[in-house]
From TrEMBL:
Residue intervals of the DUF1468 domain: 10-154
The name this protein goes by in its record: Candidate small integral membrane protein
Pfam families with a match to the protein in the record: TctB (PF07331)
Presence of keyword Cytoplasm: no
Transmembrane annotation, as ranges: 41-63, 75-94, 100-118, 130-149
Keywords of the record: Membrane, Transmembrane, Transmembrane helix
Highest classification ranks of the organism: Bacteria, Pseudomonadati, Pseudomonadota, Betaproteobacteria, Burkholderiales
UniProt-listed InterPro entries: DUF1468
Length: 162
């Protein structure tokens, strides 16, 4: 069978592998049933749904004819690096690294770091717009996670709250 859309084929395989990995990982938790869901129920269900979606997309890539075969182009290394780096920076700023003496900077600083670094992945960097976006995201995150959900994690840098 010939692959008629390389992009869809690769995306479908990626969804299938990630979904299967999540579903398999969820089986290490108590799954329960629909009436009494355990901690593994939701990840198992999402993993199965993602794997099924991957099978459907992969099948479609083999059946549906495309004009040019939707060839996979070169990997966009710059955006990939900045997006992955922004997520790593967010985790580092949020919780710190006590073993290396890096203090927790809290949610607000972590969100600003995430937004500014992720915005470097694009073609144009507009600091004013990025600052506005980061501020709005920080305000909504504070109200959603700290005020409404009452989650317990650092909001401000640890050296300011002692």
């Amino acid at each position: 069978m010939k692959i008629k859309s390389q992009k869809d084929f690769a995306a479908g395989l990626m969804f299938l592998v990630v979904g299967a990995a999540f579903a398999w990982g969820a089986t290490t938790y108590s799954v329960g049933d629909a009436a009494r869901m355990g901690p593994g129920y939701f990840p198992l269900l999402l993993g199965i749904l993602l794997a099924v979606l991957g099978v459907m997309i992969t099948f479609q890539s083999l059946v549906v004819e495309t004009e040019d075969g939707h060839k996979i182009g070169a990997i966009a290394w710059k955006p990939l690096g900045f997006i992955i780096g922004a997520n790593l920076l967010f985790g580092l700023l949020l919780g710190g690294l006590p073993k290396l003496g890096i203090p927790a900077m809290g949610l607000m600083v972590a969100i600003y770091g995430l937004v500014f670094v992720a915005s470097l992945a694009g073609d144009r960097f507009r600091p004013k717009e990025v600052a506005i976006l980061a501020t709005i995201l920080a305000i909504f995150s504070y109200f959603a996670f700290i005020w409404l959900l009452n989650l317990q994690f650092p909001v401000w840098p640890s050296f300011l709250t002692r």
